[in-house]
Amino acid sequence: MKKQDAVNWAVKQIGKSIDADGSHGAQCMDEIIAFCKEHFNWHPTGDAIDLSTQDLPDGFQRIKNTDEFIPQQGDIGIMDSGEYGHTNIIVAANQHYYDSIDQNWYNASDKGSPAAFVQNHDYDEFWGIIRPPYEDAEKGVSTESTKLQVINDNINYTMNKRVGSIDGVVIHNTAGSRTAVQDYNALSNASISRYEAGVAHYYIDRFTIWRAIDTFRIAWHVADTYGNGHYLGYEVNESMSASNKDFMMNEQATFKQAAIDMMYYGIEPNTKTVKLHNQFVATACPHRSMALHVNFDPIKQGAPSKAKQREIQDYFIKEIKKYYNNPTLIIGVPDNIPNTVTTPTNVEMKAPVQSKGKKAGNKWRRNEHGILWKSEKATFTASTDIYTRYYGPWTGWPVAGQLHFGQSINYDEVYDYDGYIWLAWTVSSGDRVYMPIGYSNGQGQRVGAAWGDFS
């Protein structure tokens, strides 16, 4: 028997209740008794904490936790919390957290509860492990990580707790070059005005998962009140810089995290529960994913049709289901990596606002990218700090600067895109910059108060 065989056995127990000793229902120890009896003809005795002291069969190892120790897949974890302790089968680990399959962890009681995938156990009450004699088991203290780095450190602003249900997930593309760690460094202590411009629950690449906002709180990630309140947001990092292979690995890490959260909340992946940013408001997000998987780039080609939206939605659902059905799958190199260029040039990034489109009424025009715009000259004075953007009216574009409270600008164009009303003007360097000044309904009308005064 190999380590992966143990993981596969544990996965099959998810949702089931094993009562190996016929006492107190599906306790954590019952999972370990059943596993060891079936595969090694050994019946552990006592409570979970007793695994740290009882005699072991030949070939088994018992390893106490140390600072450098990282459990292997298939190790039997031992926690010394409480009177009885706790035990589980470990499926992935790094130096700070481990994932496992546990009975009687969620809704724990003296009557037990079914086996479940548990993400991000810490080592605070971790005694160590028992390692069965797998064919590929390491001897002694192991130090190899099998789990992505996890940063569980929220942004410095407390979002409101969600009122009502979580209806699903939204997969975003950052439209930037930063890694998840770089976004953590840049955004974890940002201003409220920066968060108002858009912030998701997660930022993810192939190495790191940053949970920026707890999933029981809302996040301002789709510029839509219902979407912000009822959907979890996942940003796939490096959508403007990573190679196709690396970005697709970033996507896979994101799909896995979305699947784990959907499992936890009891949400099945389908077209109602896996949504796109551009299904809430007119926006180019998720531009890179669409370019890679459905041969359509919203930055270059304009607003996607409903058929293209459904096509990328179906791809996301298929990939999320893979991890939903087996959350222990390790992120690997994807198949069928396109060899085409899927990131826009500077000229292509500027093109959407240069397309003037057709008349849409009330002096507005709408172009093929779904951007509403009109000429208008006036002065705007900010009542809060507001970030400005290069290239166009999209919160995904690079930050150009910031208009501070009390500062004024003279603008000459107004845009409605990405869930916001935007003003545009040319700065002294000759660059064109774009600034959101309030939320919109997508029809050229502001929703709520502006973030400043007009004169």
From TrEMBL:
SUPFAM superfamilies reported in the protein's UniProt record: Cysteine proteinases (SSF54001), N-acetylmuramoyl-L-alanine amidase-like (SSF55846)
Protein's UniProt name: N-acetylmuramoyl-L-alanine amidase
GO molecular function: N-acetylmuramoyl-L-alanine amidase activity
SMART domains referenced in this protein's UniProt entry, alphabetically: Ami_2 (SM00644), SH3b (SM00287)
Superkingdom of source: Bacteria
Peptidase C51 domain sequence ranges: 3-130
InterPro entries: Amidase/PGRP_sf (IPR036505), Amidase_domain (IPR002502), CHAP_dom (IPR007921), Papain-like_cys_pep_sf (IPR038765), SH3-like_bac-type (IPR003646)
A GO BP annotation: peptidoglycan catabolic process
Signal peptide start-end: none
EC number: 3.5.1.28
Catalysed reaction, written as an equation: Hydrolyzes the link between N-acetylmuramoyl residues and L-amino acid residues in certain cell-wall glycopeptides
